[in-house]
Design a protein that fits this description.
InterPro entries: ICL/PEPM (IPR039556), Pyrv/PenolPyrv_kinase-like_dom (IPR015813), Pyrv_kinase-like_dom_sf (IPR040442)
Mean pLDDT: 97
Pfam families: PEP_mutase
CATH superfamily: Phosphoenolpyruvate-binding domains
Structural class: alpha/beta
Strand content: 5-15%
Radius of gyration: 18 Å
CATH class: Alpha Beta
Number of domains: 1
Keywords: Lyase, Metal-binding
Protein name: 2-methylisocitrate lyase
Shape: globular
Order of helices and strands: HEHEHHEHEEEHEHHEHEHEH
Organism: Endozoicomonas elysicola
Low-confidence stretches: none
Number of strands: 10
Length: 253
């Protein structure tokens, strides 16, 4: 690579300080190369996309496989990489902290940690303790890695918007650099999230075509990501083409 890891991490932090950051989510080096050519400033991994790449469902990849995946992507690009590290592959804050340190060794510039255990959320108290442990672990390494705290309450259907915002505020106070609640779509809710954790940036997951970046940026959102959308689009296209050949005898027109 032509730039140092320190520079990649510095660049990533600067991308969060002003303007709008759009994170696309590849799951292999081929996709990464295409995003580089399209002008991506940084990328984020996708747990679902990587698991599908392995022929499994989301959350079925082992920690060691995810760490190897992160190492491979980080080594292949000058772009900063934000890791989808799911719930950190541990419940206990001390174990989570050790896993975070292992993730940092892969060369990532940012790290997303979820507050879910299966289809439920950790208690608010344990969730905050886990974010504090992540913050301490990052600080102990001396590396400038951004900590992204994710509240999964909307995706799991286990928390309303008020609880989600309360959790995000607590995670911000516990040391998270970026706050993220995938599943939020309502503009008033997004604005409330932005205001609640300001001046720290909020990440919004793009879920539908009418979630327009310019309009959401006007509400104060500074970071956007595509999650599994690119992987889903690729696999849908694959299946349509394959079904046309196998069932109709020709490639799709």
């Amino acid at each position: 690579m032509s730039i140092s890891l320190e520079t990649k991490r510095t660049n990533f932090r600067k991308l969060h300080e002003e303007g709008t950051l759009i994170l696309t989510n590849p799951w292999d080096i081929g996709g990464l190369r295409r995003l580089e050519k399209l002008g991506a400033k940084a990328i984020a991994t996708t747990s679902a996309g990587f698991s599908w790449h392995l022929g499994r469902e989301d959350f079925e990849a082992a920690k060691e496989e995810v760490l190897a995946h992160l190492t491979q992507l980080c080594a292949a690009t000058d772009l900063p990489v934000n890791a989808d590290f799911q719930s950190g592959f541990a419940d206990d804050p001390a174990d989570l902290a050790e896993n975070v340190k292992q993730a940092i060794e892969t060369g990532i510039a940012g790290l997303s940690i979820e507050d879910r255990t299966g289809d439920q959320l950790y208690s608010p108290e344990l969730s905050v303790e886990r974010i504090r442990a992540c913050r301490q672990a990052i600080d102990e390494t001396g590396q400038d890695v951004l900590l992204v705290a994710r509240c999964e309450g909307l995706l799991t259907g286990t928390a309303d918007m008020d609880e989600v915002i309360t959790r995000l505020k607590a995670y911000a106070d516990a040391g998270a650099d970026v706050l993220f609640a995938p599943g939020v779509m309502d503009k008033e809710h997004i604005k409330s999230m932005v205001d609640a954790v300001a001046p720290k940036p909020v990440n919004v997951l793009l879920l539908t075509a009418d979630m327009e970046i310019g309009a959401l940026a006007s509400l104060g959102v500074r970071r956007f990501s595509t999650g599994f959308a690119l992987a889903q689009s690729a696999w849908v296209g694959f299946e349509v083409a394959a079904a046309s050949v196998l069932q109709q005898g020709h490639l799709p027109s």
